[in-house]
Amino acid sequence: MAGNGKSSAPFLVSGGGIGGLVTAYALARQGFAVRVFEQSPEFKEVGAGIQLGPNIFRVLDKIGLKDAVLADAHRPPAQEMRDAVTGKLITNIPLGAEFFERFGQPYAVTHRADIHGTFLKACQGSNLISLETSRRVDGYEDHGDRVTVRLEGGERAEGRALIGCDGMWSKIRERIVGDGKPQVSGHIAYRAVLKREQVPADLWRPDVVLWAGPRCHFVHYPLRRGELYNLVAVFHSDHYEEGWNAEGNKDLLWQHFKGLRPEVLRLLELIDTWRLWVLCDREPVKDWSKGRVALLGDAAHPMLQYLAQGACMATEDAVVLAEKAAASPDDLPSAFKAYQQDRYLRTGRVQVMARVYGEFYHARGVTAELRDLAISGRTPQQSYDGIAWLYGGP
Ligand SMILES: Cc1cc2nc3c(=O)[nH]c(=O)nc-3n(C[C@H](O)[C@H](O)[C@H](O)COP(=O)(O)OP(=O)(O)OC[C@H]3O[C@@H](n4cnc5c(N)ncnc54)[C@H](O)[C@@H]3O)c2cc1C
What we know:
The structure is a single chain. 36% of the residues lie in helices and 26% in strands. It has helices at residues 18-29, 54-62, 66-72, 97-103, 112-124, 171-176, 250-257, 262-269, 310-327, 332-361, 365-376, 380-391, and strands spanning 11-14, 34-37, 49-52, 78-83, 89-94, 108-111, 129-132, 137-142, 147-151, 156-159, 161-164, 183-195, 208-213, 216-223, 228-236, 246-248, 274-281, 289-290, 293-295. A hairpin with a 5-residue loop joins strand 4 and strand 5 (89-94). Helix 4 packs across helix 12 (380-391). The chain starts with 10 loop residues before the first strand and ends with a helix. 48% of the residues are buried. Bound molecules: flavin-adenine dinucleotide. Flavin-adenine dinucleotide binds next to helix 1, strand 3 and helix 9.
């Protein structure tokens, strides 16, 4: 319920991706008015899958969106890792009853557009949220008792605080952290989504399958209640391009994947058009808020995708930020400090460990042998122990 400290001055949110929308909704659930400014002409996510660990469901449960997200998702029975050269099984981690019992929440995979669409629908259903498209935030002033943002075209908007949910290339971050461009990892991802009927029956698997190869890997899993099939091929390359939707050159992909298992090559051959992502991240930092302005999601802690956690972390951020704001609505600068204090070690650990997992998936020679030795004999409970720091939170 809105109390005295929750006067009508809205929170301003820059960016209407997964992080911006879930932040708007979490704030509105606490009784705050919110204006979301999205630079694109519509609220839309690019087509690809994301994995959702049990940690996201713990926070989605708190804001009443867990069932809606699960309704469109697919629940894989297991996560499997195989050697992309020999085909040998490296590990198979069950994600069913035993997993649920351990973490109290499920594991799921979903289309980005589906989870984004669920957040959008939730926001549209709230009379506290104003969703505004074709509105790029170009800058802001923090006046101490309120903030003003400058929108493209010169218009200004005033609010009680600004949350920068403007992603990897965040404008707001330039002012708060000022650490230049993101770091290019030297890895690029090609992604495609097929309809289930396009996938030969012997290649369709209900699990999340990761084929680990030398300086490359390939992941596939079903999406949207099993109606779609998501494919992501990652390999080392110096190619650089900003944004998430450029077309990938097929020859470059084949240079890296030739000689791998026929199951991998047959799936790759099914794709006509690949979309490309140049994978970037940043060093973890501790200070993502200043006065009445705070960062969230990829703007605060962009990470490589190897732990499949960027959207999960943004959602955790949103729920924590809204709780802190509700606890001290009259002192938002302190609320934002409490939010970053709560979050920076957890998100920093994911940023650091995601890099380690990337090395791990792309290992060659003795390093690959050591990896296989370390994880292949694990029981499910031992595998769960290894990831409990992440899945057991926040
Ligand atoms: C290959 C790959 C696989 C991934 N897999 C997973 C996974 O399995 N699980 C998972 O949890 N995460 C995954 N992620 C990470 C996840 O996609 C991101 O962390 C998440 O989408 C970040 O959300 P965000 O809202 O912070 O940023 P974004 O999604 O980048 O949204 C930012 C929004 O802000 C808008 N914007 C930018 N600048 C401005 C401005 N100046 N004014 C107004 N609007 C602006 C943009 O148009 C955009 O809509 C993956 C990422 C990649 C690259």
